[in-house]
């Protein structure tokens, strides 16, 4: 009798536990998995993915998500140009994504992509070498033998919602976003280190900070921002989740040291921490995020700002994108340095603008 009662109690408890998610799912004000209050659209913009995802993903799905880093999402790619993308930095072969990892990644993107819409705030982190060109409005691209002058009035390339790096300092941000694929002794974001497969925060960032453009998305810009996925994962998403129709595109990994994952989220780059109390080989931890690529450059908007993030996490307003009336009466947009900048900062950014102007003039612009 006691055994039968225990069995009935266990079955009843199991039934209750299994019923909880269903009960949550039926309440539009509660998270379908955790049962906590469902965050509003405005709150989601400022909720880091690690705190938002447990609202919608089970612990098993979250574990699969975190464990997917370092797995191969392009096993069906036969182009030899991408063979190196199936390797780890040490040359070992990446294991293919499991079915559970693939499903968890697709679910993560279905949740996080909901917040890429008109009015969403994104960050575009840029190397310090590009800051002068942005402030000047034009820069030079191409080879030294064939320079091309282009305007810098758009946001292009890899971007992400502001929440991805919310609360992180400059070093943590570089580590979280995999900034950037640098292999030289010194770089804009990272410098070489004597430890194998490790980089360190660059001297450039230590001296001058980490810069980003804070941009409010237009409806068209949000549509053009799509999730880059390697072929296997991209094919799965297109076949199994209609909510992500036309929200991703195929972008396979190339280069065994490349921090790009093909999973639609950044990998850590083995970046050594700056904490003096950490172990010598301690690296910044992985921060789950969703990365997007501007498949079409989106115009800067009035009110966008250029910010500098320091090693202690503080951010300084450097410039604001505003309406400008030229001497001939033409109305355009341009960057206006913050009047609150120190004399030293004004001299530094003024120098960057002068250097950008000189490069443009030399290139015939």
The secondary-structure class comes to alpha+beta
Strand order of the largest sheet: 9-8-11-4-1-7-12-13-14
C-alpha termini separation: 91 Å
Number of helices: 11
Mind telling me the C-alpha Rg? 23 Å
Strand content: 15-25%
Helical percent range? 25-40%
Mind summarizing the main beta sheet? 9 strands, mixed
Mean pLDDT: 92
- The number of E-state strands comes to 14
Shape: globular
Low-confidence stretches: 1-20
User: How many discrete domains?
Assistant: 2
- Listing every helix as H and every strand as E from the N terminus to the C terminus, the arrangement reads HHHHHEHEEEHEEHEHEHEEEEEEH
Characterise the protein shown here.
Helices cover 30% and strands 21% of the residues. By secondary structure, it is of the alpha+beta class. The chain folds into two domains: 1-38, no CATH class; 121-362, no CATH class. Strand 12 (305-309) and strand 13 (315-325) form a beta hairpin. Mean pLDDT is 92; it is low at 1-20.
SSE topology sketch:
Blueprint: H1 2-25, H2 41-44, H3 49-52, H4 59-67, H5 99-112, E1 121-126, H6 131-136, E2 138-141, E3 148-151, E4 154-161, H7 170-177, E5 190-192, E6 199-201, H8 203-208, E7 210-216, H9 219-224, E8 225-229, H10 231-240, E9 248-250, E10 271-272, E11 292-299, E12 305-309, E13 315-325, E14 331-337, H11 343-362
Helix pairs in contact: 4-5
